[in-house]
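Onboarding guide, step 5: your first structure request.
Type a short instruction followed by the sequence, for example:

Predict the 3D structure of this protein.
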Amino acid sequence: MTVEGQPSFSVPPPLGLADPTAYPAYAGYSGFVTYEANENGNISQYLLRANSCTLKGTQNIDTVADIDGSIDSTRYALKPFEVSGDISFNLDSAPNSVGYLGFQQIYKDTVQRMADGRLKIRQAPGSRNMLVRYTSDVSYRYLDIVPSKMTISCNANDSLKVDVTFMGRGREGPFNGTIANVGEGLAATYQGKKNVAPVRVVTYNDVSIDIEPSTVSGVVVNTLGSKIVRLPLVKGFTCTIDNQVEAVHTLSGTLAAYDLVAKKRQITGRIDFLGRNRDIADYALYNEIGQTSRANLLFNVRFGNVTKTLFKLCGVVFKIESMDLTNDVLNSSMDFMALGDQQFNYEAISAFETPLQRANGTQHPYPFE
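The system replies with structure tokens like these:
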């Protein structure tokens, strides 16, 4: 019996209402993102509790500019199939969680190179995939992906954020999202580790930056002293590790990329200060008279009562500070770059949580020696 005032879909609905039961709308929270790493046949799946994921496959189709008397274009050409996009997530404050291990794996995949300069993960193409479930009906696995760029940032009153730009070569699917394996997720364990819930994410009160003066004597203008000190008045920072990955295409019978090539690595960033940080700002003024003017930066995170250095940048060169004058609180910003350091075997970044160890150990060729 139809209740008065309540719509019935057995007859033409009032006001033109459509029936959503056959094709319902979904919210993205029911999806997930899983990073899959294959190390010599051992597959680890890391659930990334992402804020957003724009990883997708695209293919442009262009029209051909023919002179054929027709008002409209009459021919078209297929362009390369490309996989690219960003994944953004916060870092767990539990270093024994699967999410933290996933960040550790992505960091290693971003910075580790072979002796010939290629990303280390390219010695086994297809060893890194990303499984993305969009709904219970649709999932895709993006194949043979590499991290092209990683940005780590944190601002006062906010949490530490990680943004990674991935590029890939293929896409598998779509397949039913209900059979997609979430991997080492909320209910599973990996090497005894687990995604704790609820868990606090790393926030600005956990984060600090230390500065270490250069150890090279005689050619460095050093106004910073001789000890590692905590960098004061920091309002926030951004650090970007850019591998400048390029998709290479050949006449190989496919529209997908033949290979993904990492080029010269660029490590850049910015530190925002409350007011003017006199020590660092004055230090940058000596760039024009010093034969080399640089320092090291250590990026630290506190886990409970333990503080860990996530990574260290060496050969850091600061640009002069910039300040805007408004009626608000006075702040300044200083951009920096990290370059290959002779005291660090010509590398600019350390291994994960090991500030005294180079990212590539003995793999890096030393062209100057």
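Each response can be followed by summary notes, for example: The chain has two helices and 24 strands.
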